[in-house]
Amino acid sequence: MKPTSRTVRIAVTASRIAADRPHHPHHPDAYEILDRAEIAEVLALWPRGEPHDDFACMCHGDGGVSLYEAGGGRIRSAPPSGPLRPLFDPLDPAGLPARHRDRWAAAAPAGLREYAADLARGTDPGPAHAPGVPSAVVFGRLGAVREEPRDAAWLLADRAPVRLPAGRPTEELAWAVRETDRTGLEGAVRFFASEEFTTRHPKRRRVPDTARDLLLRHARGHRPTDLPVLERRLLRAPEDRIRRS
Predict the structure, then answer these.
(1) Which of 9, 49, 116, 226 has the most CB atoms lying inside 10 A of its own CB?
(2) What is the value of pTM for the model shown?
(3) Is 151 in contact with 100 (CB distance < 8 Å)?
């Protein structure tokens, strides 16, 4: 059996691209390939006649592609050059990174799909995009993101939903905390503990007691590492003026 046939995971270290060269602004520094069909595609283009050890020189800033077996051991490494280059080019629509980003965008809720597609293409629509999408939906999208996503879309999946509520008033976000479900509360805690919220002016960090209590309670039970940040940065509003009808 060929050594590469044992491959169950491929780790990719992205190339270091000069600022004046075309690049995808949301491409991660490192990502993984776990899909079996994509792994087979990489192996079909793997350079032949490479040294029969796990080392290949990747000292020219081109990044590297490493094959791993089920036990976690590295099998081989090679630079993403030659036949492999188009497959790992972040700007190639047929490349693996673009496919990962497209899958992520297609899975977005209807109201967020256009925003997600813009980010996947490498444009920056800004946090004020998708104004008609309720913040509760955005929190739900953020709460559904894996904590450690590993494919080439992970940076988009992790940061894109955080950017949307960053441009919205605290009063609107507090109302969304009341309306969202448990998954949305997970996303809301992630947002309120993030820099997008905690670096706001103190007046914009005043959260009505009802929403504040919901956030602290969820963090206490499900995200205890975020609790100290929330306790410091969620300032109390003078009174809770938001009432359900």
Answers:
(1) 116
(2) 0.77
(3) yes
